[in-house]
Every structure is written in C-alpha cells, then in structure tokens.
Amino acid sequence: MNKYLEQLIELSKLDKEIDDFAPRIAKIEKMLKLSLEKEKEFKLQAEALTTDIAEAKLKKGKNEAHLAELSAKLKDIAKKSALVKTAKEVKALQLEEEISKEQCDFANDEIGRLEKIIELKQSNITLLEEKIAEAQKESESIKASIDTQIQEIEEERRSVYQAKEELLSQMSQKILTFYEKIRKWAGNSTVVPVKKQACYGCFMRINDKTYAGVMKQDDIVTCPHCGRILYKEIEEAKA
Questions:
Q1: Is a pLDDT exceeding 60 seen at residue 236?
Q2: Residue 186 and residue 226: Cα distance in Å, rounded?
Q3: How is the chain split into domains, by residue range?
Q4: Which among 86, 89, 156, 206 has the fewest CB atoms less than 10 Å away?
Q5: CATH number belonging to domain 14-171
C-alpha cells in the first residue's frame, strides 16, 4: 500500500475517534442530567404542596377567627334574649341567631375540609421527600460512575491525541493540507472504503479505471463523484 495512503487511513480513523469522544461524554452526562431533573421535579412538587398547605392554613385561620366572632355573637344574642320585651325584638334576635348558627356550621365544615386538604398534602410531601432522598442517592451513584467513565475516556483521548501527534510529525505537509481541505466539508468521511465498486462516502459507483487504481493502492485515488479519498476493503482486495 502507498505509504501516504496508509497514513491518511490511519489519520482518518484517529480523527473519527477524537470526534466520537464528545458524544460519548455527552451520553454519559445525560444519565446524570435526567436523574438531577427528576430530583428537581420532585422538589418543585414538594414546594408547590408546601405553598398549598400554607394557603390552606391561612384560610383555616380566617375561618377559626370568624367562628370565634360568631360564638361571641351568639353569646351576646343569648344575653339580649333575656332583656327583649316585644315579639318583634324576639323575632329579630331569632333570625340573627339562625343566620349566625348557619355561618358557624359553614365555618366548621370549611375548617374540616381544609384540615383534610392539609393532611393529604402533608402526606404527599412525605412521599415526595422519600422520592427525593432516593433520587439524590441515585444521582450520587451515577455521578461516581460517570466520574470513573469520564476519567477513562480522558485517558483514552490523551492516548489518541498522542498517536495523532506522532503520525502528523511523520506526514508530508502537502498530503496533510490535501486531507484537511477535503475534511472541511467531508468530516469523518474524508477517507472511505470502496465496496462493490462503489464509494462509501457518496455511494456512487466508480468507473473501472478508478476502481483499478484503488485496488492497486499505489497512489492516492479520489472519488470522481465526490472527491473523497478512496481505499480498498479487505474483502474487495480478496475478490
């Protein structure tokens, strides 16, 4: 195989490995992100319930204050009942007493309803706190695992970068410039194999003359359709 072509194939593989590191790290970090988002969602739900409980307690307090006022009013009506003399005054006090008692019943019902709401939401908060604790534990476990994996990837990346630096030091600047020019638009498909007489960059069939040149591997051959650098697959070579 042509020395320069061999170097280009190796450089293309190294560049692809380097470009794959970021998605690999992002995929690993996504696991932690999802776990942290779950924990955050539980906390937001607990905060919303806490706000609801505070509002319910405030309403309950207002009803209790109103109930105390009504109780005092009923006592006052009872005192007045002993002093009234006319039927009209008795009827007016009775009506006032009935209204006050209805309001007392409503206030008591509302207090009971609010107490149930507070109890239910407090129970939900307790469940959420358990879920938050579990999510935190999960996040810590994932983070520990991620730190180890990222460290391994970073070590692998340093090794690949070192291999690339060594390869670049051996390459012709002219060949390297030619490679980088194609890589600007072709990315990691700058150097591609030929399979079944087709370029595996653009997937177009190449002519017999170009194919023969690729099979010989004496020179650097580019695809006549897309301009990518071509090399033969082991299977093609055997065929």
A1: no
A2: 9
A3: 14-171, 174-238
A4: 86
A5: 1.10.287.1490
